[in-house]
């Protein structure tokens, strides 16, 4: 289910913005959101809420890829995701340097 939701959101972003940069920013936003939810789930004092968050939110985009693929396909998808994160890092550094 989480893969379908992620693919639909990516399709919506690509359809509306038609820009690779928007796609990269979206991947970064989703990854940061999932990491924050994972951190909160692991460090919150309410066990019922922690269990619910761990069951309903994946740890990261990498865990979604690992859940639905394996072997060479998983490795290729992970490297593509890492390249997208490198592009995101490039755009963030470029923005930071341009502002200062």
Characterize the structure shown.
With 100 residues, this protein is mainly alpha-helical. It has helices at 2-17, 20-43, 47-56, 61-68, 71-99. The model has no long low-confidence stretch (mean pLDDT 88).
Give the SSE map.
Blueprint: H1 2-17, H2 20-43, H3 47-56, H4 61-68, H5 71-99
Helix pairs in contact: 1-2, 2-3, 2-5
In angstroms, what is the radius of gyration? Answer: 15 Å
List SSEs in N-to-C order: HHHHH
Give the integer mean of the pLDDT values.
88
Question: What structural class is derived from the secondary structure elements?
Answer: mainly alpha
Structure characteristics:
5 helices; 100 residues; mainly alpha
Quick synopsis:
This protein is mostly helical and 100 residues long. The chain has five helices and no strands.
């Amino acid at each position: 289910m989480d893969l379908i939701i992620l693919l639909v959101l990516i399709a919506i972003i690509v359809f509306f913005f038609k820009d690779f940069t928007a796609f990269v920013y979206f991947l970064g936003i989703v990854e940061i959101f999932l990491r924050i939810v994972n951190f909160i789930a692991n460090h919150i004092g309410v066990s019922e809420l922690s269990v619910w968050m761990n069951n309903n939110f994946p740890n990261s985009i990498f865990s979604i890829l690992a859940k639905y693929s394996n072997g060479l396909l998983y490795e290729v998808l992970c490297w593509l995701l890492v390249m997208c994160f490198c592009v995101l890092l490039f755009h963030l550094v470029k923005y930071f340097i341009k502002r200062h």
